[in-house]
Amino acid sequence: MSLNKRLDRWKAASRKLIPPDKLEIMDRAQDELSQSGIYDSCLQEGNLAPKFELPNATGHTVSLESLLLKGPLVLSFYRGGW
User: Fold this and answer.
1) What is the pLDDT of residues 3-46, one digit of tens each?
2) pLDDT interval class at 79 (50, 70, 90)
3) Which positions ≥6 away from 62 have C-beta within 8 Å?
4) Which residue of 10, 14, 42, 67 is most buried, as measured by CB atoms within 10 A?
5) Contacts of 78 (CB under 8 A, 6+ apart)
6) What distance in Å separates the CA atoms of residue 74 and residue 60, rounded to the nearest whole number?
7) Concatenated DSSP letters for 18-40?
8) Which of 26, 27, 30, 68 is closest to 49 using CA atoms?
């Protein structure tokens, strides 16, 4: 199964676990971002990401280069207080 198909299945399953009121907030924020035009300036599939270092979910700084040494990766950026 392709990665895209696995991610689509994971997303559909995850949405079922989110309370409807929270899901509404998330969907509204997604719509606002889409309508803002910000996606036009984002990296697209196949683009190379610039070198960077950022804190991970546990607060430890990681670099793109160090992660790529381990193999391919998927970057997930999230925002919000939902």
Assistant:
1) 889 999 999 999 999 999 999 999 999 999 999 998 888 888 88
2) low
3) 53, 54, 55, 56
4) 67
5) none
6) 18
7) S-HHHHHHHHHHHHHHHHHTGGG
8) 68
Tokens of 79: 């925002």
List the domain boundaries for the chain.
1-40
Tokens linked to 72: 């391919």
Structure tokens at 39: 């996606």
pLDDT at position 47 is: 87
Q: Tell me if 82 sits within 8 A of 31, measured CB to CB.
A: no
- Nearest C-alpha neighbor of 10 from the set 53, 66, 74: 74
